Amino acid sequence: MSAALPKVLCLKKGMLLKQMFVLSRAARPRESRLCAAGDALVSCQRYYRARPTHGIGRFKYLLPKEAPKKKKDKIQMKEINSGTEYEYGDVNIQMTSYDMCLVEHFAQYVHKLCNRLSIKVNESYAMPTKTNEVLFLEERGSKMQLDAVLTTHQRVVQISGVSSTFAPILLEIIQSNQPEGVHLLVKEHTEADFKSRLKSRPELEELLAQMN
Q1: Which of 5, 23, 41, 160 is in the most buried spot, having the most CB atoms within 10 Å?
Q2: What is the distance between the alpha carbons of residues 182 and 102, in angstroms, rounded to a whole number?
Q3: How far is the C-alpha of 151 from the C-alpha of 132, rounded, in Å?
């Protein structure tokens, strides 16, 4: 009898374990069951469903508060530096060509050259592109026909504070490296040069003239 008791106890323990396993499976929701995905088993239990996130994934409160955007003010012309007896004021180096890549690279070269020579560069900008049509007249005709369309590209590098003794040297260096097909012009900056950068509105100008 003493030898049969352990066997009976083991059987009872096995039955209890099976009952507990069945009860636990029945008590679990559908989401806690194991879902087969191919050959692998993936747990579908969602432990975070009833728990607060405590701001996980939120980062906007860490960023500094941005100031409200202001309306863009009208572009106003800066005061023109007229220069002194020993140095020039605002000077425009204008480069014009029909090839956009050529004039763009030359403008970059002039800008870098001025930086290397410690010459102050106020601005470096592009002027509006101009288009010119070339017409020709036939020998025995009266109508003009279109022959070609030429597009002119212009870049401007504005410098200031160049001494009167160093200006000829700078101009000679630029002219010695001037590529073919690029027209170079060095002149003092004026109010007309600033206005030429802005888009003209003839209708508005006419209305303002009538009001005045």
Answers
A1: 160
A2: 8
A3: 6
